[in-house]
Amino acid sequence: MLDILKFQKILNEFGQVKRTILVNGENRMENDIEHSYQLAMLAWYIVSLKDLDLDIDLVIKYALIHDFVEVYAGDTYVYSEDEELKASKEQREKDAAERLKKEFSEFSELHDLIDEYENKKDKESKFIYALDKIQPVLNIYMDGGRTWKEKDITLSMLIESKKDKVSISKDAQEYFNKIIEILKENEKELFNKISYGK
Known about the structure:
With 198 residues, this protein is mainly alpha-helical. It has one domain: Hypothetical protein af1432 (Orthogonal Bundle), CATH 1.10.3210. Helix content is 69%, strand content 4%. The chain contains 12 helices and 2 strands. A two-stranded antiparallel ribbon has the order 1-2. A hairpin with a 6-residue loop joins β1 and β2 (29-31). α3 packs across α8 (123-142) and α8 (123-142) packs parallel to α11 (170-185). It is globular and about 55 Å long.
């Protein structure tokens, strides 16, 4: 029972990790549990809808744990101007993974999956890595671009920060291309500054 309580405690802590994205229709930032759950459900839907040649159990597990190290490492905002914070991201996440291994040594599958996700050696981890770059875009689009407007993000900044990362998975790439076309068509309504067209 103590092990279950200990793990529930860390799940609660994971839910306290705030991201830099506004929750649709609310004046608060989403947390890592909300993001991970949405990513898992979205991935499951896409894999089922498209009948992709991916192990669905592995896809869902990767989605649920892809940011779990942030419980100790914290979220690192992709557009942060804090260069030191961005430069330390990889080491902070490695240290967090080691801490999790020590604290939950009995949960070997969790640690194996964290390692496999970080190394992106299989198509399932690549798919989740790429979809993780797209899912926030969908949320912000559905929220009328509030986060982009508040953070003064342009469409060109968004594309530049994500295009190479998304290209790791052809299964996710098509969704990125489609949402970018929608953003270009609605750029004036979604962003403070126009970087495509007029």
